[in-house]
Write a structure and sequence with these properties.
The complex is a heterodimer.
Chain A: H1 8-37, H2 39-42, E1 50-57, H3 60-69, E2 93-100, H4 103-116, E3 119-120, E4 123-125, E5 128-138, E6 141-152, H5 153-167, H6 180-209
Parallel strand pairs in A: 2-6
Antiparallel strand pairs in A: 1-2, 3-5, 4-5, 5-6
Chain B: H1 5-13, E1 17-19, E2 24-27, E3 32-35, H2 36-41, H3 44-52, E4 59-61, H4 68-78
Parallel strand pairs in B: 3-4
Antiparallel strand pairs in B: 1-2, 2-3
Amino acid sequence: MASAGRTIEDRLREEYFDLLPEIRRVTDQLETEIRYRLLGISGNLGGHERLVVASRVKDCESALRKLRDFQEGSIFDVERPEPYTLTTLNDLAGVRILVFPRRRIEEVDRELRTAFRWEADPIKEDDEVLALKYRGYSPASGKIKGEYQVMSILAGLFWEVEHSAMYKPDVRLKGVARHPAMVQRRTDVMQALKAFEEQFEALLQGSQDA
Amino acid sequence: MSITAAKQHILDTTGFSYNFDRQIYVNHKLKKAFSIEFVSDNDEKTLMERIATKTERWQFNFNVEPSESVKRDLEAVLG
């Protein structure tokens, strides 16, 4: 139970800043390891091909919001016997690998799966895999899990724009994203981006064969 | 399961609106709320049965029954 005068959110904010150096260590270690493991691919990309590795430390309010959203009704239970902890989140330390063209995704995934052997948790909508996602512990910490995602570059950049333009200004707006109408529209966009990339690749392949 | 168009239609036509901060469907007049998880995991028949039941106090239809303190906090938020 929360002590008098302090809310669960207050205690979690304190926990966040206690954990922050360790979260940063996990993020740095994960990004460095991934860049190293992908050197064989990134050093042999064609002129039009891309492989972008980007890391991020989840910010405090996003972490609190995510933990709160795990509770039905998005509300912390002050009578819960065991305290809430941010260490239950899988993505405090995250790395995203953006790839173009799509056929390179499989290659990147194979390389990283061999290196990490982490638990797979693909991002799906309507049974379609939108991004590959893995989580696990690294040598940098036994407490903070790391997470990495592998996806097409257009899908990744769309998510970044969606997040920064729509939810970042007010973290409460994140709940809008779970409304079925928004889920459907997001799926439509992802399918359109996929078709766009596949068409581009097909034309490129055709011109190389000609 | 998921939130199908049929479930969404039931909620829309019975006066429920989506509270994005709490991620619940709410009808203040009926004093009922459905979590997004409950709507996802239950069929249309269950939804209609829950909507049809009469209630004096707020009824929270969650997969996991909320504690009294959560109910109190949600009632305060929903008014």
